[in-house]
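for the record, two folds in this file. i put them one after another cuz i was lazy. first one right below, seq on top, structure tokens after. the second one comes after a little note so u can tell where it starts
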Amino acid sequence: MTIAVCTLFEKDYHHGVAALVNSLLRGGFVGRVYAGYRGPPPPWAGRAVPMVIEGWPGASLLAVETRCEIAFLPMRTPAHFTNIKPDFMLQLFAQPSLGIDKLFYLDPDICMTETWQFMTDWISCGVALCEDINSPVEQHHPRREGWRRHFGAHGISFEFPTAAYVNGGCVGVSRAELCFLENWQRLSQHMAGIIGGLGASLLEGGDHIQHLGFGRCFDRSDQDVLNAAIGMTRGVNYSILPQTAMAFCPGATVLPHAIGPAKPWRRRYLRDTLRGRPPGAPDKAFWSSADGPLSSVSAAQIRRQRASIRLASAIGRWYQRR
């Protein structure tokens, strides 16, 4: 059984990809990471060699360790990456030469703090998802009603098995659950006609969203149709970890997620702490994973940032912005 990981990145998010892979390796990962990217390849990927994968001219392969390699796949789509996650995953599953049985999509601002054995156990339980910071969203919340009204015009109905609202940063699917990805993709295409195309997003780098839908039901675009797909897809199990998994509330983390524009590699921790935003679990996880087989920043910068986090954390324990 082959379990792979994939991600999508551009610009300075290559820092997150390096830390993500380091964290996977520390957790015992063995296999291949498929990294779709736009723009130049990462500066730390200079040893990558050309590889052939149908549909991705210019692909290259970087051996990280004997037990791990990264396939860099150039993406030539104008769509915002957040809106094409199901397309990317389906395209990988469709390549018989890759032999993928199960696939995790992980955002490039996530690091793994659990073991890889936990991840393989988790994905065997059903579609692997993590509860979002905005969860729960009750059955007749305007957001869910908006999905019913917009997609109902296309003959699509929903039966939501849970009030949990999941985050789009982690999706784990087996080949037997491809119908879930197909439904997510179908809903994304319908949504594109409402919000102004798959390039539209409120996230960084997105085009202007022309219409947010009834009850602002598409202001999180890919995440909204991901959640709608849960109500559309019957016959599969959903294994949803609580908000602690992505460090959205205190507790044991699995995949701390640095949501928002203040990514760990961009932050100035002492300044941010004095402004009321001390370091969190995603920051600590990133800088803990910044060194390893892959290094996107210098050793000196890692030492400075780790020291800054320790000091900022100490300050944050007694200082609160008034």
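(here's the note) second protein begins now
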Amino acid sequence: MQTTGIFVVHEFKISVDKLNEPIYLIPFGDIHRSSPSCHKEKWFEFLTWAKKKKRCYFLGMGDYDDLASASERKILTNRDLHDSSLQTFEKLYLHHTKQLYNEIKFMEGRTIGLIEGNHYGEFQNNTTTTQKLAEFLKCKYLGCATFIRLSFKFGNNHTASIDIWAHHGKGAARLIGGSLNRVQQMAESAVADIYLMGHDHKKASAPGNRLFLSKSKDGVKMHHKKQLYVRTGSFLRGYGDGEVSYVADMALNPTDLGVVKIELTPKRDQRDGDRFYIDVHSSI
């Protein structure tokens, strides 16, 4: 897999109005929107659900459209092509990007950012269709890998944060355990609360825990830090009657389409000095 290779650090601020009510974080990607194998019914079902959720924030995980792989981009950006051909490709890229934006424009203002995948169009000015989509959504372009801090504020004095280490995805595994193992290995590179990968189209989530110490009036106190490892799913079906796909060609397993919903619930623990914190859960 070859992408832009860009790494981005980003902070996104969220105001908390109510305690004990979940705020949804929805990583979405691998839509492959213009592919004949894109499961449009599942995609529109997700959009209908997402539009109804007011306390909901979105993080793009790449491969929003099916425009071009790395090998195809080498051909499509060849300077030996006629200028008219290059302009035709650019118009096609822009058309598909605007079409996708019109479907997700309700996410504007609530999109943390867009990660680059390995399927995207490249304009002659060396920007990508993902960068153009981020421009339309007025959100941060996050490159192929990103370290994000979600900063939560409740009232005047209470703050908390959740750190996310995310990459479009590397590697592939036939079984879910192998797929999540690659996500868990991300913890070797960065200390975070949530680790995210897409790319292999699996939808899976697993929690982990680590111990850490903090200062207290009696010296030190031990805490548990929950960590979440997630493969973020896809909307590209592997098997369709009469359709051609690499999944069928390689006899791979079909995957459960859709997204993983991550619940970030603001809470206060009066037993621990009235500590304000974010409780993390996920559902599939």
